């Protein structure tokens, strides 16, 4: 049975994302997730994580999203270095639990055009997963044909990777129980045709890549390609891995 | 005037490569090279470095060159981590001299087939160089369609990058004055048609990627594509950058 799984760890799950605590990693959360994942040693797995409080401040300081020229080019390294530091912490936590995690930095092999990844290559990732390695990829600054450089979010990566690698399951661990309506209730199922009925609550976090609305747009695009995804609270990672009820949101293709 | 330059820093130039000193970085050498490079802030530049005593011991311990399966897959991370550590030292030295160095790890974006890189992408590197950034790439373990994984040497990278990025100048800083004959004299010019007349001296270093003979094979292949390269002692980096006589070896295309 194929069971290729992408697990996305939201930036606000693995870092303190609120103001005044830039750069704080939630090591306890990382350890707990790593212990959960270690229970499924044979699951073909790829992990994507957001940048959280790592990278976003640098991206804002250097105005990366407004385009990069020689004047603000220094922001490319500074932004990358910050998310790279977070990625190292994720790798360390996973490897400490015996998971064969391998870092993958988008800046090193990807290119974008006007904010969208173009012709991304997957052969090496496919091979890693087949060999039982766990590639750990993250939101990053990447070079851009139109803007000089841009930020590619973990959510865009999920969509591109899930399609390109033919993943079977996509799960997003977040700091909320799922997609929330304004009244705080969880949207249990979301489809393109019903999305307009949902008034998305504000997640309260700054995010140069668009936050919840950008996330939902990417997941609906994934559903358009026939790939379903699930969004749940980080405490429900084990339920997701086990294929049990996690009380979150399922983003589904249109019913035929 | 286009003056796109690749500078290769040999593994034995930037690390203590002899037995018994695994993992020692030559920080003074790195600093001296960085100070030299800082004198040419407008030179479009890409740097490749070898692994030296970083990576080779791990590659040997895990028998990476004999192919990688689930049994020795742990060697992929271990080998990569070692060269990554060296790359970080190179980046730090360059940035301390004001050079906008950016790390590029081949494992993160490349794939090989039976030891040869296939369909490598260059768009992001091209863009970095155009923006005045200095990509710093290194010999690395990469995933391989035939062998599972393999080692790609800095010398293979030079050839692929010089061709793919249309570089104008290729210089290799080594710990010897150039390509040496058995009597210790420097071969001043080498062409494919004259290579058989040269009896290459032994550089005395262990190297899982083939040492001097592998290097010469890559540079002759580069010459076959019309790109000349130069090999010189590390003390002559400034002479190379300035376009002056460095007393080393020029590897040239056949004369028409």
Automatic annotation (TrEMBL), chains A, B:
GO terms in the biological process aspect are: terpenoid biosynthetic process
Question: Location of site Transition state stabilizer?
Answer: 17
Q: What residue stretch is flagged as signal peptide?
A: none
Q: Which reaction does it catalyse?
A: isopentenyl phosphate + ATP = isopentenyl diphosphate + ADP
Its EC number is: 2.7.4.26
The record lists ATP as bound by 8-12, 52, 175, 211, 215
| InterPro entries linked to this entry | AceGlu_kinase-like_sf, Asp/Glu/Uridylate_kinase, Fosfomycin_R_FomA-type, Glu/AcGlu_kinase
* Pfam families for this protein: AA_kinase
User: Listed GO molecular functions?
Assistant: ATP binding; isopentenyl phosphate kinase activity; kinase activity
**Kind of enzyme, top EC level?**
transferase
Q: Which GO terms describe its cellular component?
A: cytosol
Q: Which residues bind substrate?
A: 51, 56, 154
Quaternary structure, from the entry: Homodimer.
Q: What is the annotated role of this protein in its UniProt record?
A: Catalyzes the formation of isopentenyl diphosphate (IPP), the building block of all isoprenoids.
Q: Which family does it belong to?
A: Belongs to the isopentenyl phosphate kinase family.
Question: What is the protein name stated in its UniProt record?
Answer: Isopentenyl phosphate kinase
Provide the species name.
Methanospirillum lacunae
User: What is the phylogenetic placement of the source species in the record?
Assistant: Archaea, Methanobacteriati, Methanobacteriota, Stenosarchaea group, Methanomicrobia
């Amino acid at each position: 049975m194929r069971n290729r799984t992408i697990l996305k760890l939201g930036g606000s799950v693995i870092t303190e994302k609120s103001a005044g605590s830039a750069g704080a990693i939630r090591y306890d959360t990382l350890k707990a997730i790593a212990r959960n994942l270690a229970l499924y040693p044979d699951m073909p797995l790829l992990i994507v994580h957001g940048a959280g409080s790592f990278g976003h401040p640098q991206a804002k300081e250097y105005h990366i999203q407004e385009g990069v020229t020689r004047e603000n080019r220094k922001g490319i390294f500074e932004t990358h270095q910050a998310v790279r530091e977070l990625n190292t912490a994720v790798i360390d936590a996973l490897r400490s639990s015996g998971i064969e995690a391998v870092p993958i930095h988008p800046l090193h092999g990807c290119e974008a055009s006007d904010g969208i990844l173009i012709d991304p290559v997957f052969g090496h990732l496919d091979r890693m997963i087949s060999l039982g390695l766990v590639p750990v990829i993250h939101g990053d600054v990447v070079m851009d044909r139109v803007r000089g450089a841009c930020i590619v979010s973990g959510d865009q990566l999920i969509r591109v990777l899930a399609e390109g690698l033919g993943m079977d399951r996509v799960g997003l661990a977040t700091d909320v129980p799922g997609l929330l309506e304004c009244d705080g209730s969880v949207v249990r199922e979301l489809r393109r045709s019903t999305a307009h009925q949902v008034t998305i609550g504000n997640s309260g976090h700054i995010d140069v890549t668009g936050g919840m609305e950008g996330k939902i747009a990417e997941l609906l695009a994934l559903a358009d390609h026939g790939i379903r995804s699930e969004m749940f609270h980080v405490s429900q990672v084990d339920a997701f891995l086990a294929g049990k009820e996690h009380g979150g949101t399922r983003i589904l293709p249109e019913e035929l």
